[in-house]
Amino acid sequence: MKKYGLIGYPLSHSFSKKYFTEKFEKEDIKDTEYELYPIEHIKDLQDLLDEHPDICGLNVTIPHKISVLKYLDWIEHDARKAGAVNCIRVHSESPVLAAFLGEVGVQGHDFRLEGFNTDMYGFEMSLRPLLNDTMESALVLGDGGSAKAVKCVLENLGISYTLVTRKKQENSILYSDLKEHHIKNNKLIINTTPLGTSPKVHECAPIPYEYITSEHVLYDLIYNPEKTMFLQKGEEHGAKIKNGYEMLVLQAEKSWEVWNTSTMDQ
What we know:
Layout (H helix, E strand, L loop, with lengths): L1 E7 L6 H12 L5 E7 L6 H7 L3 E6 L13 E2 L1 H6 L4 E6 L2 H7 L9 E6 L1 H10 L9 E5 L3 H12 L3 E6 L6 E3 L5 H6 L2 E4 L25 E4 L8 H8 L3 E3 L2 H15 L7
């Protein structure tokens, strides 16, 4: 039995388990299952893999997308650039593979952990149809693990961005500092925070929504609920809106591709 799964904490709501379970049934993929592995502390990852030696791949969600990096033997270029991993390929450590890559497993175990960021692929492919020539700059709300993938994609697309955060940090502005010109000059606004996630559906990022127009695109990485308060407010002012469902589907399929491709084939 091949096992795949999701690590994070808490895992009360999971798109991934439902998606992959249905995928396995629909595509008649036998002897394969996808489970939830709620681990509060990332240091428990090795114990999890020791207990479940048949795990072949893992998705990673909040709060471990950044902290997992130091537990990996190898990190793919895009994930290294983003500084966050949401997909891990697990396979037995091979001396031939290690020699080919010029590396040795650094964690002292007999399996090799390789990190990828499929969020970047999912976000970019789902965002591209919404872009036009006015999308030269963006506001990115939040700066957690998910925001890292978003920032890398924007950089790759040549779109400048301004980070908006609750606490002052380097290269960001506070929500309380947002003015009319910030909204008018940034036609793309992306929410990477968990504000508005079910069951707290009445929450939303505190931005001046009154300045949003039909020229704006509001993108929310949240998929549950389908239309967050952030998206509702944007829609009320004529903006195009999109939630994170397609991004999740695309990153899930990319994860499946990663898990079923050898490192030496890449």
